[in-house]
Amino acid sequence: MKRRAAVERNTKETQISLELCLDGSGQTDIETGVGFFDHMLEGFARHGLFDLTVKVKGDLQVDDHHTVEDTGIALGTAIRQALGDKRGIVRFGDKILPMDEVLALCALDLGGRPYFSFDAPFSPEKLGDMSGEMVREFFYAVSYSAAMNLHLKILSPGNGHHMAEALFKAFGRALDMAAAIDPRVEGIPSTKGSL
Predict the structure, then answer these.
(1) Distance CA 5, CA 13 (A)
(2) What is the mean pLDDT of residues 132-154?
(3) A GO BP term, please (predicted)?
């Protein structure tokens, strides 16, 4: 049975409908109103082999903050729900990913204890129609909503578009690794017996 989750999040600032299948093939249908963000989410899903549908109506007349952050909250919630009791998962995942001059690292643990470390030189300047500083806010929201330990680091900086894209793709690959079912794992992958 494929691991899926559907999340609805409605506030005065955003209305979000999100569906995630961890055991997909990289199919996407994404409309957030922020074109660059759509492109990043598509890269995450395609390279993680997740099926992802995201529909967002946000207060973009203000700025992109609520749209990007709240989508991160919804995605993190969907990841946590789709993982269920985490029985049989690998749990840990990592990826070092190059994109032209940029080298990005992502390492994560689906152990149920949220922690976020981000070392990447983004500024408030726009990446397309998305503020560069929103890259950090998105991943922070994902990590805490999913209850994952997430470390992201740009090892070799460069073009802002390349840095963002490398992080989103590395996150997709690392999450796919961590969420994978390992037939050798019996029960929950923790000495505590629960995650």
Answers:
(1) 23
(2) 98
(3) L-histidine biosynthetic process
